[in-house]
Structures are given as C-alpha cells and as structure tokens.
C-alpha cells in the first residue's frame, strides 16, 4: 500500500479490514465479539491529520500492526520517511471519551513529570463526534528499538540483569509516586468542573502539581 492519501479509496484495497478485527476468530458469540472490536473511521482524514501533526506532506504507507483485544494500532510512514503510531480504541476498550482522555494525560505525566521513556503524543481526540476522523484516536511517536523477545536468548547474564534493573527502576518510580486521591489521571477540561481545585500530586520537594492542561 504505497499510495498518496487521496488514492486509498479504491476497489483494490480491502479498507474495511482496517476497521474490523482480523487477528482471530471465536467459537462462541462471534458476531458480538467482532462488533465489540469494530471501529468505523475515515482513514483519509486520519492520515492527513497524522501527517500534519508532525509537519509532513503526506502519508506513504499504512501497516496494521498486531491487534490486541481493545485497540486498533497502525504504523504510518510519511513520504519523508518519518514514522508515527496511530491508536484507535475498540468499543470494548472502556468508557467513551474517558478512556482515551486518561491515557493521554497519563502518558503526559509519565513522560514530562516522571521523565520516563514514554512516546510523545503528537495529536489526539477523545470525542469521536468532534473530529473529522469519526473515532477516538491517539497519534504518537514511534520509539526506536528492538523487541526484547528477539534479543533475550542471545544476551549474556549481565546484560539481562541490566535490563531487569531498568524495568525495576521504572516500576519503582511509578510505585513511589503518591497522589491524594485514587482513580485515573485527566486534564482538567476533560472532567466536570466540580473538583478542579484539589491538588492531586506533590513531588518530593513538596511542590504541588503538575497542573495538567489539555493542549
């Protein structure tokens, strides 16, 4: 699939395969299972938006990555060679709006407050009715690297220990972060205004924040 955005809609491509679950079958309630994982969206609008989010002219290639149970994930390659990841939640992913809004705010917090290696979000929308794509989406950077499963068997013991330590350090950073309330993270404007004044996070120096604001 190496065509410009306007050429994606033709009879040569099974565009509906982008919308539906294609990674397996069910022996029970298959119709309901597939419906829970079907996302109708405008692929042309998604590609234009993704390209614009990183300042590219257009998208050259779309690859549907292995599906989980709750999201559609696409690797988008631009004509200048840059790559981004587009993620669209299935209907069974969780509450409309709130699941995507919390995921983006949480990624922001982990990346910019806790300084963990989390992909940068280039563009997103948690309200399908308010965007041209017609679905909730997150456009994020593709992080360079190699799958650990591809390298593990060839690594030496010391190298494996270093990897495990890095993972433990990340978990320690997250686990040691204290909040004043239980629940999910959101930007203020994505929640009702009834509880915007509560301080949710205080860092080790005693500073309140961050004041997460939707950009």
Description of the molecule:
The chain is of the alpha+beta class and 215 residues long. It has two domains: 14-144, Phosphorylase Kinase, domain 1, CATH 3.30.200; 149-214, no CATH class. It is built from six helices and five strands; from the N terminus they run αααβββαββαα. The protein has helices spanning 16-19, 30-35, 43-53, 98-112, 148-151, 157-175; strands at residues 59-64, 71-78, 83-89, 121-125, 137-141. A hairpin with a 6-residue loop joins β1 and β2 (71-78). The chain is globular. The two termini are 33 Å apart.
Helices, strands, pairings?
Blueprint: H1 16-19, H2 30-35, H3 43-53, E1 59-64, E2 71-78, E3 83-89, H4 98-112, E4 121-125, E5 137-141, H5 148-151, H6 157-175
Antiparallel strand pairs: 1-2, 2-3, 3-5, 4-5
CA-based gyration radius: 20 Å
As laid out across the biggest beta sheet, the strand order is: 1-2-3-5-4
Give the topology string: H per helix, E per strand.
Answer: HHHEEEHEEHH
**Poorly predicted spans:** 1-12, 211-215
Using the coordinates shown, work out and report the CATH topology of the largest domain: Phosphorylase Kinase, domain 1
What would CATH call the architecture of the largest domain? 2-Layer Sandwich
Q: Counting H and I runs of at least 4 residues, what is the number of helices?
A: 6
Instruction: Tell me, briefly, the overall form.
Output: globular
The termini sit apart by 33 Å
Tally of discrete structural domains: 2
Mean pLDDT: 87
Domain Aminoglycoside phosphotransferase: 62-181
InterPro entries: Aminoglycoside_PTrfase, Kinase-like_dom_sf, Mito_inheritance_9
Keywords: Mitochondrion, Transit peptide
Subcellular location: Mitochondrion
């Amino acid at each position: 699939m190496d065509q410009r955005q306007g050429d994606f809609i033709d009879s040569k491509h099974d565009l509906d395969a982008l919308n539906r679950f294609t990674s397996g079958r069910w022996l029970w309630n298959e119709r309901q299972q597939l419906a829970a994982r079907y996302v109708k969206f405008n692929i042309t609008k998604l590609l234009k938006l993704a390209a614009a989010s990183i300042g590219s002219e257009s998208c050259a290639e779309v690859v549907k990555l292995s599906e989980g149970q709750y999201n559609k994930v696409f690797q988008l390659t631009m004509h200048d060679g840059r790559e981004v990841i587009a993620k669209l939640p299935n209907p069974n992913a969780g509450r409309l709006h709130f699941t995507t809004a919390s995921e983006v705010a949480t990624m922001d917090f982990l990346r910019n407050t806790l300084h963990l290696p989390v992909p940068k979000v280039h563009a997103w929308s948690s309200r399908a009715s308010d965007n041209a794509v017609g679905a909730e989406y997150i456009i994020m950077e593709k992080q360079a690297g190699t799958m650990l499963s591809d390298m593990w068997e060839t690594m030496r013991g010391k190298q494996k220990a270093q990897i495990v330590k890095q993972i433990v350090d990340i978990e320690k950073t997250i686990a040691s972060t204290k909040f004043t309330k239980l629940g999910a993270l959101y930007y203020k404007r994505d929640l009702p205004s009834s509880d915007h004044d509560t301080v949710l996070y205080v860092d080790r120096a005693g500073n309140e924040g961050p004041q997460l604001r939707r950009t």
